[in-house]
């Protein structure tokens, strides 16, 4: 899948910032979702209490994940589900392919699943000649464009109507006008046929309910219902931490997730799927598989700084709140997840923090993500931990390392420090114009590209210090009689209870 | 596609039992336990305490449900008794120029006698034994009629569980959904409906429990709202009583 060019977040962000439509669309959409959330949470009232309960439930479940996952597995099996385990992403793809190949399946219809993006399931099916079709309207559009999603909730946020009309026209073999109803109507007809033909339905999972072994899916379009109703085989990819203990806990998640994601009281559909169709049922899958995926998640367990990352319910509220995401869009982030959650999750899931280190810098640490998070994950703190670990592991850029060593030397000796300031005062003469430095040479470039550096003053603060203290001492004025009497009056007034 | 292969599935299940030990073992290990722990105390179960006492009166519940259903793009109606329902369904069917209906195979819906109220339409009841046939009928039908198991006023949601007589496709494939909701099945909170679902014993637990809050919708094209993307584009809620 093609992402914007650029090997690091700075380059990708630069590419994104040159795309005017993208910037407007991301701003508009995130603003709409953010305001929707604000209205929905305000309307609901007691939002903080719900949020705290959400955090408690998720934290409790993750802290006892071994127990709750075992219960889920046991109860799902009792209802006839075939449960599988994927320590790595590639294991999940292999198991799904095994099932498809053994049955001689020809096509798969998919509903939205971030885990499936993580394990590259479409590519795996494609390799063995099985058609894999995304059925969420936004996912379908970006699949036709051969791009990954750029927003966790609105994956085609970066495409405009004309681009979408072009993509769908190619698929239709005729020119479709750029009108929402026409385009959506075409997608409905096209995908309806695909649903009816498909051998396998592949879904994600918002929550797994331990007490009944139920897979819960939230959606608005009804495509996840189609995927879990029509094909003979259902395969569900579930991140191993997606659990909640009981149906009672689902009420809390159903309160937090739609409101945080889209500002809705409820999504149009919430489905609880518990095993394949019963023998006497007329529809639903005959065979149901749940593939439980680790893929780096267990590395966060027992890690005091990052375990809370597993509390995430994938609502996307942190993306909409993030000033950095709102400017650079989802494709500037490497990996499957974007925004603040992606900035932390991607390095965490990928073990190799070195390779993904630059993404931790794509944040202003303002904490808007934490404020927005319905389960109170301290993402901004985690970004600091990530940067911290990056430094500890020595993965900082050589230039930055050298600069830090130099800083240490200068600050360790006043003689060196004074010499450096002198050298700066002399050296800057080449660069200062009108009291500021505008030059973009060398290490100054990153700063001066957007703003000017003020010049060093002729005399440093240290040099002025002796003079300043002397002036201060000389300027001390003893209290005059007039001042004294005014003070007395104030004290008396206070004693009487005045101010 | 080939038929389900029990031997293949048995092999997968054997592999799964082995993999499970390592998978759960690793989680327990990371959490600092030698093996999966016993049932922990779950002090934070369900909604915050204040929520449990939130209760609306009957009229308030119905009013709130109707407001929510309408806001979601659906059409709520209040009907005094079941005897008034056939007339309303007939009106909707005519407005929507429907040619056929499919309904859950339930006595409450059969007693509406749509066959005599709308003789020019073809009417079907879901037949669990005829998988292909029922699915095709559903796919062709213009109107799907369901009896809600439960409803929650606060979010404007109905609950429809699957069974041999209650195909999931009835509330999904036709363009028009009509949900009949007896007023006594209307609760204030979503959690009340959920706890009723949770109390069904495992051996009778439905394979599909669907919470529906309005018509199928999407905002994926330039944030422009579209109705009826995959599921029904028109959703009627008929509250009876």
Topology:
The complex is a heterodimer of chains A (499) and B (241).
Chain A (H helix, E strand, L loop, with lengths): L8 H9 L2 H25 L2 H17 L1 H14 L3 E5 L2 H15 L3 E4 L3 H5 L2 H7 L3 E4 L2 H8 L16 H12 L7 H18 L2 E4 L3 E3 L4 E6 L3 H5 L5 E7 L3 E2 L2 H16 L6 E5 L13 E7 L23 H5 L1 H6 L10 H11 L18 H5 L6 H14 L5 H15 L1 H14 L4 E2 L2 E2 L7 H4 L4 E2 L6 H14 L6 H15 L4
Parallel strand pairs in A: 1-10, 2-3, 2-4, 4-7, 5-8, 7-10
Antiparallel strand pairs in A: 5-6, 6-9, 11-12, 12-13
Chain B lengths: L5 H25 L18 H4 L5 H14 L3 E5 L5 H11 L4 E4 L3 H4 L3 H4 L4 E4 L5 H10 L2 E5 L2 E3 L4 E5 L14 E7 L3 E2 L2 H9 L9 E5 L4 E5 L2 E4 L6 E7 L1
Parallel strand pairs in B: 1-12, 2-3, 2-4, 4-7, 5-8, 7-12
Antiparallel strand pairs in B: 5-6, 6-9, 10-11
Q: Which terms would index this structure?
A:
heterodimer; A: 499 residues; alpha/beta; 6-stranded parallel β-sheet; 4-stranded mixed β-sheet; 22 helices; 13 strands; B: 241 residues; Rossmann fold; 8 helices; 34% helix; globular; Lactate utilization protein C (chain B); FTHF_cligase-like_sf (chain B); NagB/RpiA_transferase-like (chain B); LUD_dom (chain B)
Give a description of the structure.
- Chain B: Pfam families: LUD_dom.
- Chain B: This is Lactate utilization protein C.
- Chain B: It comes from Paenibacillus cookii.
- Chain B: Residues 64-240 form the LUD domain.
- The complex is a heterodimer of chains A (499) and B (241).
- Chain A is of the alpha/beta class and 499 residues long.
- Chain A has helices at residues 9-17, 20-44, 47-63, 65-78, 89-103, 114-118, 121-127, 137-144, 161-172, 180-197, 223-227, 247-262, 317-321, 323-328, 339-349, 368-372, 379-392, 398-412, 414-427, 445-448, 461-474, 481-495, and strands spanning 82-86, 107-110, 131-134, 200-203, 207-209, 214-219, 233-239, 243-244, 269-273, 287-293, 432-433, 436-437, 453-454.
- In chain A, a hairpin with a 2-residue loop joins strand 11 and strand 12 (436-437).
- The N and C termini of chain A lie far apart (71 Å).
- The model of chain A has no long low-confidence stretch (mean pLDDT 88).
- Chain B is built from eight helices and twelve strands.
- Chain B has 241 residues and is an alpha/beta fold.
- In chain B, the strands form three sheets. Chain B has a six-stranded parallel sheet with strand order 1-12-7-4-2-3, sandwiched between helices. In chain B, strands 8-5-6-9 form a four-stranded mixed sheet, sandwiched between helices. A two-stranded antiparallel ribbon of chain B has the order 10-11.
- The interface between A and B is large, with 109 and 93 residues.
